[in-house]
Specification:
By secondary structure, the chain is of the alpha+beta class. About 25% of the residues lie in helices and about 35% in strands.
Length: about 290
């Protein structure tokens, strides 16, 4: 019998996950797994004592999954991961096509197939969906969990509006796969996935192409920058929104700007960012 751990947070999914622990475990048992439910403890590595399991099922959002991935990599393990979306945005779970219903997502995983997908790494810190810095990008870190649970994605918008008062450009020296350029940027978004905060911002991203999809908003005056970003979101290609794909990116700046990985505190400058092709095993739903 295959061994699995079901890692969950009692707050995940507004408490819905905690109420369904028994039902979720039963789904895996019906499909040949000996499953152990385990409350998440962010001060303990969930893979301690679980180095030989066949599957780690994580219920939570991108931040919880980020924690599990970094914990696994710190031990040099390569264990398949199953994702039950139970956070606010669930961007990576969305790319995998996971159902928002926790019981259906459990069935997708228990009956699914293992696929290899890319993973990002910045200064030794792994990320599954996005690395970012600049205006709005650290919003998730500052948004209170209670507000996220109460009003969902709207909590990010409310917190983001406060950042408009502190708009500033970050002077950057960038090397993307050998292409070198300087830029004063308001926002830098480096996607392994496709969305951020539930909003679709990339047009050709894939978690299986071994490349990042990057969006960099150049700082002009506030009207120009705002108009350009709005135009981009509507399908336009304004010149001050630079788009590129790259496997390796090095970024330097005279400012030690705070950064974000999957909604959590990120790395410090200078930055070395690399797309690790096929680095993660994930359980995906079978397709016809």
């Amino acid at each position: 019998m295959k061994k699995a751990v079901f890692l969950y947070n009692v707050q995940s999914g507004k408490g819905r996950i905690a109420r369904n622990v028994e039902n979720i475990c039963a789904i895996f048992a019906e499909n040949g797994y000996s499953v152990t439910p385990q409350l998440i403890d962010f001060n303990r590595n969930p893979f301690d004592g679980n180095e030989q399991i066949d599957l780690m099922v994580v219920a939570g959002g991108d931040g919880t999954l980020n924690y599990a991935v970094n914990a696994m990599k710190s031990k040099g393990l390569d264990i398949p991961l199953g994702v039950i979306p139970a956070g606010t945005a669930n961007d990576f779970a969305g790319v995998l096509g996971m159902s928002h219903d926790p019981l259906e997502a459990a069935r997708q995983i228990a009956n699914g197939v293992i696929e290899r997908v890319d993973c990002g790494c910045v200064n030794g810190l792994y990320f599954v969906n996005i690395f970012s810095f600049g205006i709005f990008t650290t919003t998730s870190q500052r948004t209170p969990d209670e507000r996220k649970h109460r009003i969902g994605k709207l909590a990010y918008l409310i917190e983001g509006i406060k950042e408009v008062r502190s708009v500033h450009g970050v002077p950057l020296e960038i090397d993307a796969d050998g292409e070198r350029f300087d830029l004063k940027s308001l926002i830098v978004l480096i996607f392994n996935g496709r969305t951020a905060g539930g909003f679709n911002l990339t047009r050709r991203a894939s978690i299986k192409d071994g490349k990042f999809d990057c969006i960099l908003l150049e700082k002009k005056n506030l009207f120009q920058s705002t108009f350009a970003m709005g135009s981009y979101l509507m399908g336009g290609n304004p010149k001050i929104v630079k788009q590129l794909q790259a496997r390796r990116i090095d970024i330097r700046s005279t400012i030690d700007e705070p950064t974000d990985v999957d909604g959590q505190k990120g790395a410090q400058f200078p930055l070395h960012i690399e797309c690790l092709a096929g680095e993660l095993q994930v359980m995906c739903a079978k397709t016809d």
